[in-house]
Design brief:
35% helix; alpha/beta; 162 residues; two-stranded parallel ribbon
Length: 162
């Protein structure tokens, strides 16, 4: 089973817009990542997001690049400061790949809990619009499979001339 954890794209400040939707740069970055992963043919049971505007927008863009069997859903418990344990428990019981679009510090704590059993370890340097892929190994442990961030895609494209 693979778990794709995505920090929402860059969002407007509360002063600019209290709903905090994505900025133009945030939307561009998420679209770049979606375009980059589309050829991978990722298939997930569903794409879950916190319900906040920036996470919902990010989920919609990324869902266009993956095959989400059940679709996109707002899911309680994915807010920035929500407790990690209930979601981690659900993930441990899942058998199909899943994509979660959320926020820091929640995503960092969730990744740490799955990888080490402790939420306090800061293991993953999440980036706005980036994807962290964790893989549930047959022995029951979780491992970091790969990570894609918008800056890498831009650097790659600049180096190959596209």
């Amino acid at each position: 089973m693979r778990l794709y954890l995505i920090q929402h794209g860059e969002a407007k400040s509360k002063e600019q817009d209290p709903e905090r939707p994505l900025t133009e740069k945030g939307l561009r970055d998420v679209r770049k990542v979606a375009e980059f992963i589309k050829p991978l043919g990722l298939r997930v049971r569903s794409v879950l997001h916190s319900g906040k505007a920036r996470a919902a927008q990010t989920a919609e863009v990324l869902a266009s690049a993956v095959d989400a069997d059940e679709g996109i859903f707002q899911h309680d418990g994915l807010g920035p400061n929500d407790p990690v344990q209930p979601v981690a428990k659900d993930i441990q019981q899942a058998t199909e790949d899943l994509m979660i679009v959320g926020h820091l510090p929640f995503l960092g704590k969730l990744a740490a809990r799955l990888l080490t059993g402790s939420e306090s370890a800061e293991l993953v340097a999440f980036r706005n619009g980036g994807i962290v892929c964790l893989e549930h190994a047959p022995d029951g442990t979780w491992k970091l499979a790969w990570m894609i961030v918008p800056e890498l895609i831009l650097a790659f494209r600049n180096n190959v001339g596209t």
